[in-house]
Write the structure tokens for this entry.
Amino acid sequence: MLNTVVKDLKFPELPYSFDALEPCIDAQTMELHYTKHHRGYYDKFMAAIKGTDLEKMSFGVLLNQISKASAAVRNNAGGFVNHDMFWKTMGKSKTTSESQASADLTQAINSSFGSLDKFKVEFGEAAATRFGSGWAWLVVDASGKLKITSSPNQDNPLMDVAEVKGMPILGLDVWEHAYYLKYQNRRPEYIKNWFNVVNWEEVAKNFKNVKW
Ligand code: MN
């Protein structure tokens, strides 16, 4: 997707049904999140770039120069790509076993964080302590090292404005719209349950495909 010319970007299919992630993520939240929020970011992003020079730029280049873009482009480009990554790195039970993480990914997690359990604690803290709306990320930085970071609003580590830059291989949406219907104010409970629907097979694939 990052190599796609901006005007050719398509709104992606949800890779499973709205109720596929029950009980961790309820069907109503999934439906609203995908059909209203994600769709809204995509539509507003396309409207914001229409007729501008940004249309012909590759999406990855645009994200890497997002500080030059308007707030409408920054927020909606981020909202569009972040949710696309989010859906793909969740899944049904056959993909969510931690044994689906490749040996390479497991080794990298152990080397950066000590163990998968310690990684979860550190990632969970980044997600829980991100003030207001935003995302937590597991990224591969330019030196190939795994790092945990978080970003405000719809920013992400692909953007030049990011505190920690890198290629995201796993992201968690901690906007209230992602969990409020089921969890209300209990963001830590949402985070804990979310680990049960992480698609480790896909995270391993993302890790393998990182190129700088
Ligand atoms: Mn969201």
The pocket of manganese (II) ion is lined by residues 33, 37, 83, 173, 175, 177-178 (CB under 6 Å). The mean pLDDT is 96. Residues 26-88 form a domain with the Helix Hairpins fold (CATH 1.10.287.990). The chain has two domains: 26-88, 98-208.
